[in-house]
Design a protein that fits this description.
CATH class: Mainly Alpha
Strand content: under 5%
Number of strands: 0
CATH superfamily: MFS general substrate transporter like domains
Pfam families: MFS_1 (PF07690)
Number of domains: 1
Order of helices and strands: HHHHHHHHHHHHHHHHHHH
Subcellular location: Cell inner membrane
CATH topology: Growth Hormone, Chain: A
Main location: membrane
Distance between the termini: 33 Å
Membrane topology: Multi-pass membrane protein
Radius of gyration: 21 Å
Largest sheet: none
Structural class: mainly alpha
Protein name: FHS family L-fucose permease-like MFS transporter
Shape: globular
């Protein structure tokens, strides 16, 4: 490869990595958005979680079609189609904010997430292919680190734009002025996101030749959706892994989407200033001078839940060089389950810090579950990967259940649902230790949530 070609490949990889950051940022905006729509549209906890449902339901609908689309098109047309769909989703969100219609919010989120699903299916193998094959895993890990950076920044900006003045506690009143301000924040956020996506689409179009030459798509093994589904469902371990991904993503999203409401509750940080005394956390939250933690301040703290996952991913990568994957998964899931039970049984100010720390142990779960399943599934890597990506729909289903539990009890009690999920994942890790790996070629690139 010439120096000019190498520079082109590096530039193409940098643009692909921007996509990882973008979809991480957009996905994590769901957390402050759930809290915002609860106040803006005067919703119950269950109704507010419909925003998370609309977003993550797209994974259940679009994962296999996205895999089939990629099998028939080159990477660039697939990515451009995904970006186009994301732009449409943003435009619907702009209409929803200006018309103040909650159903349009749900439609916009579903369309936006459908584009992200297609983007993930196409961008992960592309990031791995852009450069020396010996360093494919390093490139993919680096790109995923930028994805985690996006999930850290998203809640900070989202809370600043969506939650100013919004309160959802019993008896709280959201005035017309505050409601208009929150809707304007949603409008502003998705307007700039739309512009960013459009710029990325133009850049990809201009660099399409360089990317195609650097990572030509294999035409071997093209299969239809029906064949992929039948193959995936023929393997018990693919189904077991799908259940594990369903429970993991459901638990992670359930905790994240209710975290701001949980921290803002009077039983946790609503009447406490303890969080402001913690370096970095207190600075990021930015005290408004009023005793206790407001919903906006709590929304900013959610960034540390996702930031913990980013740090944990780096530490976990090092631990996985010394500890077997199934053992580390068993340990992390057991700790996460215990932390959820602490929040439920003990509560109080310390429970807020414990809840934020769960993100640290979420970090390695998705990639480890993914690889443990690929290594043991009798279905093809493509079929197994499609099923596992479809199982991300757990992020749509379980938040509804958690919202229902918190609505009829409290936010601390709702942590029993993810506790059960983590306990089941611990059993998955133990079962993986007893099941030998199957001989398989190089596994498909992992699409990290």
């Amino acid at each position: 490869m010439t120096t000019r070609q190498s520079a082109g490949v590096t530039a193409a990889y940098a643009i692909v990595t921007c996509l990882f950051f973008a979809w991480g940022f957009i996905t994590s905006l769901i957390d402050p958005l759930v809290a915002a729509v609860k106040g803006i549209f005067t919703l119950t906890d269950f109704q507010a979680q419909a925003a998370a449902f609309a977003f993550f339901a797209a994974y259940g609908v679009m994962s296999f079609p996205a895999a089939a689309l990629l099998a028939r098109l080159k990477s660039i047309p697939t990515i451009l189609s995904a970006l186009g769909m994301m732009i449409v989703g943003c435009l619907v969100m702009l209409a929803a904010a200006n018309l103040a219609v909650f159903t349009l919010v749900l439609l916009g989120l579903f369309i936006l997430a459908s584009g992200i699903t297609i983007l993930q299916v196409a961008a992960n193998p592309l990031a791995a292919a852009l450069g020396d094959p010996r360093y494919s895993h390093l490139r993919l890990t680096l790109s995923q680190t930028f994805n985690s950076l996006g999930t850290f920044i998203g809640p900070l900006l989202g809370a600043h734009l969506f939650l100013a003045g919004i309160e959802v506690k019993e008896g709280a009143v959201v005035t017309k002025e505050i409601r208009a301000q929150a809707l304007a924040g949603i409008d502003s956020a998705y307007f700039w996101i739309c512009g960013l996506i459009a710029a990325l689409a133009v850049f990809f179009w201009l660099s399409r030749r360089v990317v195609t030459e650097a990572a030509p798509l294999s035409t071997a093994g093209r299969r239809g959706i029906a064949n992929l589904v039948v193959d995936a469902f023929s393997s018990r371990w693919a189904l077991f892994g799908g259940l594990a991904i369903f429970l993991y993503v459901g638990a992670e999203v359930s905790i994240g989407t209710q975290m701001a409401l949980f921290l803002n509750s009077d039983a946790i940080w609503g009447h406490s200033d303890a969080a402001f005394g913690v370096p970095l956390l207190g600075y990021a939250m930015g005290s408004d001078g009023i005793p206790g933690v407001s919903l906006q301040e709590a929304g900013k703290a959610v960034a540390f839940y996702w930031g913990g996952a980013m740090v944990g991913r780096l530490v976990g990568s090092l631990l996985l060089t010394r500890v077997k994957a199934h053992r580390l998964l068993a340990l992390f899931t057991a700790i996460a389950a215990a932390m959820c039970l602490y929040v439920f049984a003990v509560g109080g100010v310390t429970a807020g810090f414990v809840a934020l720390s769960i993100g640290l142990f979420n970090s390695i779960m998705f990639p480890v579950i993914f690889t443990l399943t690929l290594e043991r599934s009798t279905a093809s890597a493509e079929s197994t990967s499609g099923l596992l990506c479809t199982a991300i729909v757990g992020g749509a289903v379980l938040p509804l259940l958690v919202g229902l539990v918190s609505e009829h009890s409290n936010y601390a009690t709702a942590f029993t649902v993810p506790a059960l999920c983590y306990a089941t994942l611990c059993m998955f890790a133990v079962a993986a230790a007893r099941k030998p790996k199957l001989p398989r070629a190089e596994p498909a690139a992992i699409s990290l949530h």
